[in-house]
């Protein structure tokens, strides 16, 4: 059985309050969703200073979301022991587009000697997934999905696949997108009305612990809360997080079920349905 | 459980998979003047290019390979669930760079390959694009096998594609002491890496599906070094090798041939040699080791599936090409049986292919004859 044992929503410019009050009633917020989300430029307040030099906003947001999902106190993480049983699946499309655009302009204008070698890791898009792995010592399979708006849903499918195939006993599913000028222009070109920067993290295991998660292609089971199409419209309420959107929805669903606000929550993602909680909730 | 390769389609600077393998056997290299951006700005003068022009080059190569592998797999999407997973290192970031330099703004939904592949794979259920640096294709292959073994799909196309970006070329130029003229994997006098262009698609099915097959994939091992931003790490790479052997229920001494990653860089080749020694040689293995980047360049996320295509041909034809560009074996490679000078006739039963990506994402596959 696949279970979700922890999650975080890290959306710096978004007030979660109105949606949570609607769903959980005044004062019924899951405690785990309390607190403010630092923006990427102030990530050091949560993560500590070390290692953040030249880290792009999406990477910083992904680190913040993972840090919070793991329940770590603010401050630097001690050098982790490498854990080959934990995999990372990141859903990120536009993490390095600003770096790549800047590099192209710099090189065209001044030549390659003007490019800092410190940006080298950011020339490769998978930098978000590998940085999360290094920061927290996750030595299992390392995937970054970039299927556009479907990235979060695809990443969830692959996270479950890694667990079912015995490639990992725990997966950190992380969604992150930036809203730097390059990313925001691209997203508006793609039709986004309200592109935002944010991240979320959902920790999945195959151990039977946590809130049960089931995936299906078809109709969802009866659930008191539905997130996504014909349910709580998080894009309209919280903003457009593009490839991270479905991970944000899953993280919210986890918090609501884990806190007992609802016995089960259905998340409608791009083409698939995920149900958290349900018959086995709380077991 | 093993899965079967029912089709493999490749596009490199030499052309098709047949043409690429023939060039490897002849010891040719496909390097030429850099055709992406300007050499003086990038600090890179050479590249392994596909000599075509026009828009959406990478998408066209990928579509061509995927359509070919799909047709030859005889997949029937009415009865069979077909999924495509595309691994790429640089993806369509070149379109973002073109925009930054005055071109048109791309639609973000054109920065992945869902649309490209749905257009040529009628009835495909899902198309998933992964960005995974230089081992992306190996990750696609691993997930393809998982999907088949768990009954989530009946036919999976593990695909990969890569062109070049100015940003990656500039980083290669920035760290090179002087511009590299060709890639020389595992050579004592290697001078660094050059990029190549290409695409690949491997069609996989479960063993019980009737019809001919090219080879079997026993397993792909995955790991992440979780150690350094760009430098490879022996422990992480060795773990991916051991994971592949363990998942395939094979031992080191059974590996007959290794199609290595071999980038010709200061960092990769000694580390890869150390991992080969630790995992395969020390327990008693003595495989022949070849590598293709001296011939076709480093195809980024496509590199893993180039190695897989070459492995399939080694199994089928009983011949292992030499490492193009390797003349004097690096000191750390002492004792490793690199194929030197010309191809070697062999009858390999088990072939290991390797790909290691930026950030330490590693994929190692084991293949045998069908």
UniProtKB/TrEMBL annotation, chain A:
Gene3D superfamilies: 3.40.47.10. Residues 56-193 form the Beta-ketoacyl synthase-like N-terminal domain. InterPro entries: Ketoacyl_synth_N, Thiolase-like. This is Beta-ketoacyl synthase-like N-terminal domain-containing protein. It comes from Amycolatopsis minnesotensis. The lineage of its organism: Bacteria, Bacillati, Actinomycetota, Actinomycetes, Pseudonocardiales.
From TrEMBL, chain B:
Pfam families: ketoacyl-synt, Ketoacyl-synt_C. It comes from the Bacteria. InterPro entries: Beta-ketoacyl_synthase (IPR000794), Ketoacyl_synth_C (IPR014031), Ketoacyl_synth_N (IPR014030), PKS_Beta-ketoAc_synthase_dom (IPR020841), Thiolase-like (IPR016039). Residues 1-369 form the Ketosynthase family 3 (KS3) domain. SMART domains: PKS_KS. Keywords: Transferase. SUPFAM superfamilies: Thiolase-like. Gene3D superfamilies: 3.40.47.10. PANTHER family: BETA KETOACYL-ACYL CARRIER PROTEIN SYNTHASE, POLYKETIDE SYNTHASE-RELATED. Belongs to the thiolase-like superfamily. Beta-ketoacyl-ACP synthases family. This is Beta-ketoacyl-[acyl-carrier-protein] synthase family protein. It comes from Amycolatopsis minnesotensis. The lineage of its organism: Bacteria, Bacillati, Actinomycetota, Actinomycetes, Pseudonocardiales.
């Amino acid at each position: 059985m696949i279970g979700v044992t922890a999650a975080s929503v890290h959306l710096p410019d978004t007030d979660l309050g109105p949606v949570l009050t609607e769903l959980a009633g005044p004062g019924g917020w899951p405690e785990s969703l309390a607190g403010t989300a630092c923006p990427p430029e102030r990530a050091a307040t949560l993560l500590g200073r070390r290692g953040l030099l030249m880290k792009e906003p999406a990477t910083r947001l992904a680190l913040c979301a993972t840090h919070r999902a793991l329940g770590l106190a603010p401050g630097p993480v001690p050098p982790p022991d490498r854990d080959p049983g934990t995999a990372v699946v990141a859903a990120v499309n536009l993490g390095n587009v600003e770096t790549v655009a800047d590099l192209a302009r710099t090189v065209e204008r001044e030549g390659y000697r003007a490019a800092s070698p410190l940006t080298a890791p950011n020339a490769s898009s998978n930098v978000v997934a590998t940085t999360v792995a290094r920061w927290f010592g996750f030595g299992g399979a390392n995937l970054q999905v970039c299927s556009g708006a479907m990235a979060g849903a695809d990443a969830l499918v692959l996270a479950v696949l890694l667990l079912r195939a015995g490639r990992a006993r725990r997966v950190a599913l992380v969604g992150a997108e930036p809203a730097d000028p390059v990313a925001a222009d691209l997203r508006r070109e793609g039709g986004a009305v309200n592109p935002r920067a944010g991240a979320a993290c959902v920790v999945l295991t195959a151990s039977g612990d946590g809130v049960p998660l089931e995936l299906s292609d078809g109709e969802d089971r009866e659930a008191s809360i539905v997130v996504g199409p014909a349910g709580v419209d998080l894009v309209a309420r919280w903003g457009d997080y593009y490839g991270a959107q479905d991970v944000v929805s899953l993280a919210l669903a986890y918090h609501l079920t884990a806190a007992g606000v609802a016995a089960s929550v259905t998340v409608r993602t791009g083409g698939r349905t995920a149900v958290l909680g349900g018959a086995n909730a709380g077991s | 459980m093993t899965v079967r390769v029912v089709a493999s389609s490749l596009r490199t600077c030499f052309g098709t998979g047949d043409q690429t393998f023939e060039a490897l056997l002849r010891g040719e290299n496909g390097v030429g003047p850099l055709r992406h951006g300007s050499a003086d700005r990038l600090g890179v003068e050479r590249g392994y290019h596909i000599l075509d022009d026009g828009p959406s080059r990478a998408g066209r190569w990928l579509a061509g390979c995927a359509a070919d592998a799909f047709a030859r797999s005889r997949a029937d999407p009415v009865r069979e669930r077909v999924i495509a997973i595309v691994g790429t290192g640089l993806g369509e970031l070149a379109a973002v760079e073109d925009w930054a330099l005055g071109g048109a703004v791309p639609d973000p939904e054109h920065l992945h390959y869902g649309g490209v592949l749905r257009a040529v794979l009628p009835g495909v259920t899902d198309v998933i694009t992964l960005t995974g640096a230089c081992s992306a294709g190996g990750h696609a292959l691993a997930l393809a096998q998982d999907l088949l073994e768990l009954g989530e799909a009946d036919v999976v196309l593990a695909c990969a594609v890569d062109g070049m970006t100015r940003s990656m070329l500039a980083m290669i130029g920035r760290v090179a002491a002087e511009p590299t003229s060709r890639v020389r994997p595992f050579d004592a006098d290697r001078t660094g890496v050059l990029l190549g262009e290409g695409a690949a698609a491997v069609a996989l099915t479960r063993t019980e599906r009737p019809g001919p097959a090219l080879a079997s994939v026993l397993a792909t091992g995955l790991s992440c070094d979780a150690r350094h931003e760009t430098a490879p790490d022996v422990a992480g790479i060795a773990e991916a090798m051991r994971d592949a052997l363990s998942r395939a229920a094979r031992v080191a001494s059974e590996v007959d041939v290794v199609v290595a990653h071999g980038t010709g860089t200061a960092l990769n080749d000694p580390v890869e040699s150390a991992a080969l020694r630790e995992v395969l040689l020390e327990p008693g293995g003595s495989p022949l080791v070849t590598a293709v980047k001296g011939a076709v360049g480093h195809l980024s996320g496509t590199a893993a599936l180039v190695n897989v295509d070459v492995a399939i041909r080694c199994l089928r034809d009983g011949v292992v090409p030499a490492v193009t560009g390797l003349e004097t074996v690096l000191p750390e490679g002492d004792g490793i049986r690199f194929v030197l000078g010309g191809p070697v006739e062999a009858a390999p039963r088990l072939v290991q292919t390797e790909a290691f990506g930026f950030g330490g994402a590693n994929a190692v596959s084991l293949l045998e004859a069908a």
